[in-house]
């Protein structure tokens, strides 16, 4: 297990860009933290991976696959845990099994077959079903919109958007001033609901019976239309095509505003892999 839990040099470099040089100490201590949590939760570590803000370990517990996710910033884990608990009755979101929030650790259920929609492919009706699920908690008598509680640790969408714009600048992708202003204006107004915050085809897995299952939220409170941007921009060859995709998705997702979604696409196109068509 020792080799699996050690943080590779390329991951350390990526974390240093995201969290600063101080993250080196966390990387040094991570193997002992993983061993401690493995003992606490009865885990056998089988493989390691992760994204830009966490290390993720595929583990086995009682013959079942589970995922141990750790981040250098415990508030990130706290925010994700709150969102996953809000979505606990929604089968289109990965299940949270346990958490050690001071340690920045989450234990997550496995999703099978687990292929990302980036690799598998997808269509707008599938995405619409996912967006509907994210907007409305399941269960009789549930509030039709997920709203922030008085004790919520989640920040407003404007904070998330400002962070993304600043991160793009740090990574050498300048954002025009007009787009920055438009994005922050959109993020500061409009409807308020629970936003996934990082919903794209690489963060959605194929689940049981083909149901898309969202993972890795960077949640916040704000306009849920934010979560639809990547899905309508991808595959749109020109502005007319984009508008058709937006209209088609809006017809399938109650409450989604075509005008606001188009405005989000314009404002965020500098951050996406597919620039806004002309």
Describe the structure.
- The chain is of the alpha+beta class.
- The chain has two domains: 2-109, Phosphorylase Kinase, domain 1 (2-Layer Sandwich); 117-271, Alpha-Beta Complex (Aminoglycoside 3'-phosphotransferase, Chain: A, domain 2), CATH 3.90.1200.10.
- Helix content is 42%, strand content 15%.
- It contains eleven helices and nine strands.
- The protein has helices at 2-5, 9-19, 23-41, 74-86, 117-120, 124-135, 157-170, 177-187, 229-233, 239-250, 258-268, and strands at residues 44-49, 55-61, 64-70, 96-100, 105-109, 193-195, 204-206, 212-214, 220-222.
- Strands 1-2-3-5-4 form a five-stranded antiparallel β-sheet, sandwiched between helices.
- β7 and β8 (212-214) form a beta hairpin.
- The longest helix is centred in the first third of the chain and has 19 residues, at 23-41.
- The chain is globular, with a radius of gyration of 19 Å.
- Mean pLDDT is 90; it is low at 138-142.
Low-confidence stretches: 138-142
Distance between the termini: 51 Å
Side by side, the strands of the main sheet go 1-2-3-5-4
CATH topology of the largest domain: Aminoglycoside 3'-phosphotransferase, Chain: A, domain 2
Outline the biggest β-sheet.
5 strands, antiparallel
Topology summary:
Blueprint: H1 2-5, H2 9-19, H3 23-41, E1 44-49, E2 55-61, E3 64-70, H4 74-86, E4 96-100, E5 105-109, H5 117-120, H6 124-135, H7 157-170, H8 177-187, E6 193-195, E7 204-206, E8 212-214, E9 220-222, H9 229-233, H10 239-250, H11 258-268
Antiparallel strand pairs: 1-2, 2-3, 3-5, 4-5, 6-9, 7-8
Helix pairs in contact: 6-10, 7-8, 8-11
């Amino acid at each position: 297990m020792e080799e699996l839990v050690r943080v590779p040099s390329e991951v350390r470099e990526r974390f240093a860009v995201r969290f600063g040089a101080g993250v080196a100490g966390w990387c040094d201590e991570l193997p002992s933290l993983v061993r401690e949590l493995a003992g606490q939760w009865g885990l056998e570590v089988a493989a390691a991976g992760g994204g830009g803000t966490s290390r993720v370990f595929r583990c086995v517990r009682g013959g079942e696959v589970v995922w141990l996710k750790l981040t250098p910033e415990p508030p990130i884990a706290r925010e994700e845990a709150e969102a996953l608990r809000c979505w606990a009755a929604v089968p289109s979101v990965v299940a949270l099994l346990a958490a050690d929030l001071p340690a920045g650790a989450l234990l997550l259920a496995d999703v099978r077959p687990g292929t990302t929609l980036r690799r598998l492919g997808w269509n707008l009706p599938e995405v619409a079903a996912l967006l509907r699920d994210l907007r409305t908690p399941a269960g009789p008598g549930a509030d039709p919109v997920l709203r922030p509680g008085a004790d919520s640790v989640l920040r407003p969408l404007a904070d998330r958007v400002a962070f993304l714009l600043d991160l793009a600048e740090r990574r050498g992708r300048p954002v025009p001033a007009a787009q920055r202003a438009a994005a922050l204006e959109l993020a500061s107004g409009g409807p308020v609901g629970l936003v996934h915050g990082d919903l794209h085809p690489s963060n959605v897995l194929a689940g049981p019976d083909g149901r898309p299952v969202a993972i890795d939220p960077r949640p916040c409170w704000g306009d849920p239309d934010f979560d639809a941007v990547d899905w309508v921009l991808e595959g749109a060859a020109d502005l007319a095509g984009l508008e058709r995709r937006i209209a088609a998705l809006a017809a399938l997702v109650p409450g989604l505003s075509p005008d606001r979604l188009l405005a989000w696409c314009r404002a965020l196109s500098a951050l996406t892999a597919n620039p806004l068509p002309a």
